[in-house]
Write a structure and sequence with these properties.
Length: 383
Amino acid sequence: MATVITPVSTHRPVDWSDPGFFTDRVGRSTSFWRLLWFLLLPPDTQRTTATAAGGVLIVVSLGIGIAAYNNANNVLFIALSLLLSSLVLSGVLSWVNFRGVTWRLVLPPHFRAGEPAALRVELANAKKIVPTYSLLFRARARRDHQMQPLHLGERLDPGGAATLDWIFSPQKRGVESIEIAGVESQFPFGFLRKTAGGILRHEVLVWPARCEYEFRAPPAQRAHFSGEVQRRPGAGADLLGLRTYRPGDAPRLMHWKASARLRQLVVRQTGEEQRAGYYLVLDTTQGVWAEAEQFERLCSLAASLAEDLFTEGKLLGFSVNGEPVQAVRRLADLQSFFDRLARLEPVAHPAPPVLAGANVITFKPGPRQQAYACLGGQLAGAA
């Protein structure tokens, strides 16, 4: 059973899940025969195994049972019944312990290779009377082969909620699969290990790691980036003309002398002044970027350079493997570029260039697994 919930602002929650005991696909209670079949042949996600202590208890029970039948001793039969009842009671109490418990996986908005990210499992106990004890979840990152047990050591009261945190540091760029295995518990006696519920799985994009690099525009190109006036309305200092006042115009733009002469309010219209920026163009032809380590260096260099240029207000757009140029005007556009880098792979055939000019940054391989950044065809940086 799962119920879709509305994501919160700072994290990405995955659907609520629960053990799903004794319910069919539409959520109705099962019949007695279905319940009996469930107990005899449980699904893969509903398993009960004996712990080491439980195994010893089972062996002792078998020994006492054989001795009781051979000797017809009532004391041995009483001891056998007590041992068997403890196993049955352990199973019943573990089932009650799971009932009404739901959980969900809450992910951070972004992942980046080499940087820690806080993952969270949120628990809720919908039971009205009985609390829940001693739950264990197993969190796993399949691509990085990382496993982390998340243990709820405290009591989860009826109607209460709790959180379990996992600090996960992805090591590789790409698509990572985060899994939370079904809840596990040895409550109450530690004789049986009960596993319930399926697996919560969610794929996330891991952005390239930041890297140390050098980037400096060649002297011939520096004059090109000294700043230029755009002939369009804006908030610059150069006067383009006058226009009629519209509600919302700033009072400082009012041209009082012209307003008095024309007998209507007019404001100054200025040109927007902005600094020229750069375009990032990536060509990941397989024959050029044959080394896997060097290709990863390329992704890290492109991500680091794009982030720093965006912070300085100098990133205009990007293009990958001949795709149309995508403008970068806000943070979401930069994150779109990082998502593209997370999925980036070498391509078999070279892409035709989509941009050329003094403000276009391209990349090429260098010696010793280095990646070079070229501005207008001239070497400008390396990582």
